[in-house]
Amino acid sequence: MRNIVLIGIMGCGKTTIAALLAKKLKRPVIDIDEYIVEKHQQTIPEMFKIGETYFRENETDGCKDMAKLEGHIISTGGGVVLNPLNIQYLKENGVIVYIDRSIDDICKDVETSTRPLLKDGPQKLYDLNKQRYQLYLDACDIHFINDDTLENVTNNLIEILKNYI
């Protein structure tokens, strides 16, 4: 059974939608960021303090581990698309869904001070989206717009996923 892998900019709804999909589809859910925190016994801010390169290496290691799973819902970090090897690993046994949400909506909901890459304010989110948007499109099997209630978004995504899983 293929994994369902959610990608997208931070705050787009990956973690929340992953939990709802897991409940409705009766599948286990795993968040790559939580996985690497547990595996390396360091918080993400601690990893970033060592360096973003260090964090990204741990992230790629986590993606490699995810490729061995079957039937999971996998929520990724926003920068997972920066390394093509991550996408290669995730596609080995997964369908990749790009959760696309407007930056304006994200800025209304996300507390940027708790996100390492956003410590300088929400403009960074606009910059990150501009940098990564095409990478998300290139990586995904399904481009899904998150612009409705969570219930409707989840149900609509399940309908689309039926053709892939």
Q: How many DSSP E strands?
A: 5
Radius of gyration: 15 Å
Order of strands across the main sheet? 2-3-1-4-5
**Residue-averaged pLDDT, rounded?**
92
Order of helices and strands, N to C?
A: EHEHHHEHEHHEH
Helical content class: 40-55%
- Percent range for β-strand residues: 5-15%
Overall outline: globular
Annotation keywords:
165 residues; alpha/beta; 5-stranded parallel β-sheet; 8 helices; 53% helix
Describe this structure in words.
The chain has 165 residues and is of the alpha/beta class. It contains eight helices and five strands. A five-stranded parallel beta sheet has the order 2-3-1-4-5, sandwiched between helices.
